[in-house]
């Protein structure tokens, strides 16, 4: 009896495992979109992935843990970039903040803290003084930050980020672009988890297509 029970459990386990590990179905037009005009990418022979985001977006904040986990398990042929989008002129300070910290080598350290401050501590960080005060409280020299924040280079990057978003026809965030031609997001795919599965699918597709 125990012999037959063991065989049954093994077979059930194998069958159950096969179901659990079945590949997720990904469909063009439902889970991702193909851009009408392919956008140029900066790195040849690799997979370029861009997340268009906004610090103040609650959906971006919620997506961040899944996104970080996805980034950590990528091969070296995947190049990931974050691009801030300001859908209104009054939100441009957030894009400037992103590029100022990036220029100072502080982005990786402070980006998560900024989102936490905005979404858990109800800070808006929308005017220069408030932003500078907050950054200084994180141990960054206030005057050095302001000089970088106001610089032509940072202002140009913030404007260019919006132009790039327009080229990709970004109308909501977070949105992920792969290889300048594919677009997906939690809202397009339906859930954050499904969006991550779609990103895996698209990266594999680009590899199979010879990084085209």
UniProtKB/TrEMBL annotation:
User: Where is the organism placed in the taxonomic lineage, from the top?
Assistant: Bacteria, Pseudomonadati, Pseudomonadota, Betaproteobacteria, Burkholderiales
Q: What is this protein called?
A: Thiol:disulfide interchange protein
One cellular component term (GO) for this entry is: periplasmic space
**Which parts of the sequence belong to the Thioredoxin domain?**
16-166
Q: Which domain of life is it from?
A: Bacteria
What's a Gene Ontology MF term here? Answer: disulfide oxidoreductase activity
Keyword annotations from UniProtKB, A to Z: Disulfide bond, Periplasm, Redox-active center, Signal
**Principal place of residence:** periplasm
Where is this protein localized, as stated in its record?
Periplasm
Q: Which cysteines are joined by disulfide bonds?
A: 57-60
Where does the signal sequence lie?
Answer: 1-20
Family of the protein in this entry: Belongs to the thioredoxin family. DsbA subfamily.
Q: Which InterPro entries match?
A: DSBA-like_thioredoxin_dom (IPR001853), DsbA/DsbL (IPR023205), Thiol_disulfide_DsbA (IPR050824), Thioredoxin-like_sf (IPR036249), Thioredoxin_CS (IPR017937), Thioredoxin_domain (IPR013766)
